[in-house]
Design brief:
Order of helices and strands: EHHEHEHEHEHEHEEHEEHEEHHEH
Radius of gyration: 22 Å
Structural class: alpha/beta
CATH architecture of the largest domain: 3-Layer(aba) Sandwich
CATH class of the largest domain: Alpha Beta
Length: about 400
């Protein structure tokens, strides 16, 4: 059976060159970067080399990069760190209703300790209106956090404009760029951001490693305390092998991001064209233009997404129902709800996300299989309906 992996927004397969960069630090170069001997120095050199590559990917200085265990920790460090460092200045955070749970649940946690949070609405495409950000700011606002690209529908937010609005008021601006790093060009200065989160496994690096960009001059308190690693911003012995892998993934992305964008967009558009032409009531979610080049979110009204996912899985095709983080929930996605999708449509939402290892032949197979699966499930639904015992497939 042909196997086609189209769940790259959940996690992307490890690039062979990334694995090669990691292996020395899993074998013989196993030293602690804090050790003064040769093995320790070699490990430290690898960490700092990777730090520079992460900085290069996003247009930052290497001193502004703090390694974390992934996007969730990076988001927590940014949001909780600013809140702890800003107690004397204010207690208000502005974010959006469609953020990843790593942002939303962190904000909800802070609300229990006296922080006030404004959750901004989005339009039908998932776009935050910068004017809404401007109107939400108060003298007590200590942080604005709006994601760069949504993990479920791929919509890219107007980050530079939001950043300028926050900057004019002297308010730190954080963006969760976990889904966009390595897929579209990022430059922290052009984006006008003060803090930016990334995670390696979303762009063919290893799981369990990420980074937070903290602009020089931004005051932030650590959330982990211990030996003082990462300039006392993130204590704990560094995960050298994974850091080396993150650095290599950033290097590969930096070298090939334009080609990656073009190839993934072509395949994504071909996939969209094929299934849209065959399924007349198919809905495409997210902004039609301002969208990640590898992400396709579609809804089939009247068909449960989980049944489509299972049918495709039986054909060797891996996709997600909505986002991987909410796939076990019976409630509709908070992202789709905020975008105003009717419940029946939202329940039939499937995310197909491409990576650099996909091929045009795989896309053709996936498109044909998706159409066949939906046609079969619709037929079953019609039969059940005619028998008077209609089920939701």
């Amino acid at each position: 059976m042909k196997t086609v992996y189209l769940d790259n927004c959940a996690t992307a397969p490890l690039h062979p060159d990334v694995l090669k960069a990691m292996l020395p630090f899993l074998r013989h170069s196993f030293g602690n970067p804090s050790s003064a001997h040769a093995l320790g120095r070699k490990a430290r050199e690898a960490v700092e080399k990777a730090r520079g590559k992460v900085a290069d990917l996003i247009g930052a200085n290497s001193a502004e990069i703090v390694f974390t265990s992934g996007g969730t920790e990076a988001n927590n460090l940014a949001i909780q760190g600013i809140a702890r460092a800003s107690k004397d200045r204010g207690n208000h955070i502005v974010t959006s209703a469609i953020e990843h749970h790593a942002v939303l649940k962190t904000c909800q946690y802070l609300e229990r300790s006296g922080i006030t949070v404004t959750y901004l609405p989005v339009d039908q495409h998932g776009i935050v209106n910068p004017e809404d950000v401007k109107q939400a700011l108060t003298d007590r606002t200590i942080l604005v956090s709006v994601m760069h690209a949504n993990n479920e529908v791929g919509t890219i937010e107007p980050i530079p404009e939001i950043g300028r609005i926050a900057g004019e008021r002297g308010i730190p601006f954080h963006t969760d760029a976990v889904q966009s790093a390595g897929k579209v060009p990022l430059n922290v200065k052009e984006m006008s951001v003060d803090l930016l989160s990334i995670s390696a496994h979303k762009f063919h690096g290893p799981k369990g490693i990420g980074a937070l960009y903290i602009r020089e001059g931004i005051s932030i308190d650590p959330i982990l305390h211990g030996g003082g690693q990462e300039k006392d911003m993130r204590s704990g012995t560094e995960n050298v092998a994974s850091i080396a892998g993150l650095g290599k993934a950033c290097e590969l992305a930096k070298e090939t991001v334009a080609a990656r964008m073009n190839e993934m967009r072509k395949m994504r558009d071909r996939l969209q064209e094929r299934i849209s032409a065959a399924i007349r009531d198919l809905a495409i979610n997210g902004h039609p233009v301002s969208r990640l080049p590898n992400c396709l979110s579609v809804s089939v009204p009247g068909i449960m997404a989980e049944t489509i996912v299972r049918d495709l899985d039986a054909r060797g095709i891996a996709v997600s129902a909505g986002s991987a983080c909410t796939s076990h929930s019976v409630e509709i996605s908070h992202v789709l709800a905020a975008m105003g999708l009717p419940k029946e449509t939202a329940q039939g939402t499937v995310r197909l996300s491409l990576g650099i290892m996909n091929t045009p032949d795989e896309i053709e197979y996936a498109a044909a299989s998706f159409v066949e699966a939906v046609e079969k499930l619709k037929t079953l639904s019609e039969i059940e309906g005619s028998l008077g015992s209609r089920k939701c497939y």
